[in-house]
Write a structure and sequence with these properties.
alpha/beta; seven-stranded mixed beta sheet; two-stranded antiparallel ribbon; 5 helices; 27% strand
Length: 181
């Protein structure tokens, strides 16, 4: 029996090749979600008007923060991006502090899940094909259903690390900038 798509969270995405320089975007940065058994993620994001570009990803299990910081620096250099604000999961402030000590501009994530999802849904997502884990997650990211089959607002807590990282950065950083401007 084929599954219904009505509980898919993000239908507003396309997969496409793009290669814009950093100054083409209105904002750029990295959303991070921490993990050990689950992957730690670093999602490189560019925003242009009402479009979010998922440019690159780090998606690795069993790495310490120093390794993630080094990987983000390497990806940043490869992309030729500078001054990337990092928004990371606020549940582990020591990790945020390590990024700050490494010279990054760091923000703790605003973790309002349903508000954050609704905010991200206001954009069109462009996912670069090299972001295979992000693509896999966006295709599987669904709302929970209760035992009566009623679709709930909150997502299923499974395979959502890139989705969390994107939501953290967009809802925390872009929303803050758009409210200030």
């Amino acid at each position: 029996e084929w599954g219904a798509l009505e509980n898919i969270i993000y239908k507003n995405y396309v997969v496409e090749e793009f290669d814009f320089p950093q100054d083409w975007y209105d904002f750029t940065g990295v959303g991070c979600d921490w993990g050990w058994e689950n992957p730690s993620t670093g999602i490189f994001i560019g925003v242009k008007e009402h479009d979010i570009y998922i440019v690159d990803e780090i998606y690795e299990s069993h790495i310490i923060n120093a390794t993630l910081i080094n990987m983000i620096s390497q990806h940043q250099e490869m992309l030729q991006w500078e001054r990337l604000p990092i928004v990371g999961d606020s549940a582990e402030p020591a990790r945020l502090e390590e990024f700050e000590q490494a010279g990054f501009e760091v923000y703790p994530a605003e973790k309002k899940v349903t508000d954050g999802i609704a905010f991200v849904q206001g954009f069109r997502l462009h996912i670069h094909p090299r972001c295979v884990n992000t693509l896999r997650e966006v295709q599987a990211y669904r709302r929970r259903t209760d035992r009566n089959g009623i679709i709930l607002e909150e997502p299923v807590k499974w395979m959502d690390h890139a989705m969390d990282a994107i939501r953290y950065w967009v809802y925390t950083f872009v929303r803050k900038l758009s409210m200030a401007g």
